[in-house]
Automatic annotation (TrEMBL):
Keyword presence, Ribosomal protein: no
GO terms classed as biological process: chromosome segregation
This protein's GO CC annotations: Mis6-Sim4 complex
Record's keyword terms, sorted: Coiled coil
Protein's UniProt name: Centromere-localized protein 2
Organism: Arthrobotrys oligospora (strain ATCC 24927 / CBS 115.81 / DSM 1491)
Coiled-coil stretches noted in the UniProt entry, renumbered to this chain: 127-161
Pfam family, one: Cnl2_NKP2
Length: 200
């Protein structure tokens, strides 16, 4: 099945099942009213029923449209798979054409050909490496969390000490307060520098 065949089938199904297939296309409101007894043709429920059937039929058409699209997508997927299988089969056949005589002729010209070394790791080794990397990452995250908690607590402590300057009693009796404030500010600057310091 080719791509053009799939597109043709999709077009045929769309034209046959969806073209001019809405409920008003099949029966208009006037014709629909004529199906009822004359004393009921102008009843509001007749138009309400007509609108209800129109919506129900539109939902059915939408389902049909989705099914057509789905079948087209599935056909394209099958076509791609067939092409891959055909390409793989052709490569295998080309490889078989290089028989032992051809290999011997190549060896006479170029000498012994070393066997190719595979650089592909076994899946077990890959999984093990990922597990080790994940463990290291978890440890680093725990260390970072501890550092963040420590620095946060230090900042809180320093801010608490500095609150004495704003709310405390800044009198001569409080000797050494200025030196303490300067020391706390230096500690705060050092702590902030640690927070913003880029990682190595």
């Amino acid at each position: 099945m080719s791509r053009s065949t799939i597109e043709t089938e999709t077009q045929i199904l769309t034209n046959f099942l969806l073209s001019n297939s809405t409920f008003p296309d099949m029966v208009d409101l006037k014709t629909f009213r004529s199906l009822f007894p004359k004393n009921l043709q102008d009843h509001p429920h007749v138009k309400h029923l007509y609108n209800h059937l129109t919506l129900k039929h539109a939902a059915t058409l939408e389902t049909v449209r989705k099914n057509i699209d789905f079948e087209a997508k599935m056909s394209h997927q099958l076509l791609k798979r067939e092409r891959r299988e055909t390409a793989n089969q052709n490569r295998d056949e080309d490889a078989e054409m290089l028989n032992q005589t051809d290999i011997n002729n190549v060896m006479e010209v170029y000498g012994e050909m070393p066997a190719p070394k595979s650089n592909i790791l076994p899946i077990e080794d890959i999984v093990k490496s990922l597990e080790v990397a994940n463990q290291k990452l978890q440890m680093e995250m725990e260390i970072l969390d501890e550092d963040c908690e420590r620095l946060t607590q230090e900042i809180k402590d320093i801010v608490g000490d500095l609150s004495t300057l704003k709310f405390g009693s800044f009198t001569g009796a409080n000797e050494g307060l200025v030196d303490s404030v300067i020391e706390d500010l230096a500690r705060l600057q050092d702590t902030c520098d640690q927070v913003v310091k880029p990682a190595d």
